[in-house]
Amino acid sequence: MSIFKEKELLELLSYTFKVGYGDISKEVFFNNGLLNRISGGDIYLYNVNSKKVICKIITNNVYEKIGEQLDPDGKEGLLDLWIKSQHRIKNSFMLEDKVYTKIDSLFYENIPDYYGSFSDKNRGVIFIEYIEDSNETINMNDEKIKFLSFLHNHYFEKESLCRSIGVYTPTIDVYKHSSETYLRLLHCIGKYFPMFPKTVLNDLKYFINNIDDQYRQMVNYGRSLCHGDYSHGNIKISNGKLKVFDWEGACFFNPEFDLLRFVSDISVDVTDDYLIYVMREYYKNAPYRKEKKEFQNCLILNSQLQFLDSLSWILLLRRFDNKDNILPKSCQIYLHIYYFLRKYNFNDII
After folding, report:
1. Residue (of 15, 64, 69) closest to 37 by Cα position
2. CATH superfamily placement of domain 1-59+91-130
């Protein structure tokens, strides 16, 4: 259960929409997200005066709750990693509110209608438009790639503008502080998934042990406003327009971080042809990438960082699904992308 009681939500909805309790009703809503399995966050759907409103709730102790379920007996040390590691975005529930209120008006048509929020140091709730699933026929992949390149082009190397929005900006100190965390998580991956290629684990360890140099290279490639979790499940279509939500991971970082999240989505059949298509379409709309080799190198670095950031989730799902010695689909996709980025010369394929 969330620490928000239903009466509190009704009061907040009544205040936000200036209606009485009689104009508010709770609707059935199936949320298959991970937070549904964890005490500390949830999503509800209300009908407010004939308007469908999503109430997205998350509490500041959600990572403690995840850590407790990752390592209930404390023997792995993963609980400490989740609570203390600085590579986790702190107060992430407040970032989505900032994006909806401060993003450039050029992007209003591509985000849900935003109705307001409440937050304190321990919890937060935002009220946004509920978007029905649509059967409209447009080339969804093309539109999703165009939006991503449009977002990145608009904010590329505009650090002060991104800071004014209030998005998270990873620093070298954060990654250095988290290096031990990453190494311990890699140890767990090797322990629970012995079929995971040792050469790839060694490459990831090299990345961590040389994080100073790796981070500088990434900064030199340039940064932009990134959604942070640009997966197909966070994008819907309404009246012919993409609607992109779940901006709580928004950050100022390499654009390729978003692109890799897009292609590594487990709901998509990740083949070489699919990766070539997405890379080609994105690159031709990314004027800030002057050379294809630069683009490829930045993708390689970000693929390593993104996989390291996903290790805790992989181990968490292993706990929930109770599947030992079965390489998760997300790992399989990462390995496919890893080999793809090293097998091809981007000068030849895009």
Report:
1. 69
2. Phosphorylase Kinase; domain 1 (3.30.200.20)
Q: What residues does each domain of the chain span? A: 1-59+91-130, 133-349
Structure tokens at 85: 């590691």
- Taking only the tens place, the pLDDT of each residue in 245-302 is 989 889 999 999 999 999 999 888 899 999 999 999 999 999 999 999 999 999 999 9
DSSP state of 66: H
Contact (CB, 8 A) for 314 and 331: yes
| pLDDT tens, position by position, 214-255 | 999 999 999 999 999 999 889 988 887 899 998 988 999 999
CA distances in angstroms from 55 to 42, 60, 228, listed in the order given:
8, 16, 21
Neighbour tally for 136: CB within 10 Å: 10
Q: Does domain 133-349 sit in CATH 3.90.1200.10?
A: yes
The predicted model scores a pTM of: 0.89
Distance CA 108, CA 128 (A): 13
How far apart are the C-alpha atoms of 79 and 99, rounded to whole Å?
Answer: 30
- Return the residue matching tokens 């929020």: 117
Burial 298-320 (b: 16+ CB within 10 A, else e): bbbbbbbbbbbbbbbebbbbbee
Interatomic CA distance for residues 215 and 219, integer angstroms: 6
Topology match between the domains 1-59+91-130 and 133-349: no
> Which tokens belong to 166?
């209030």
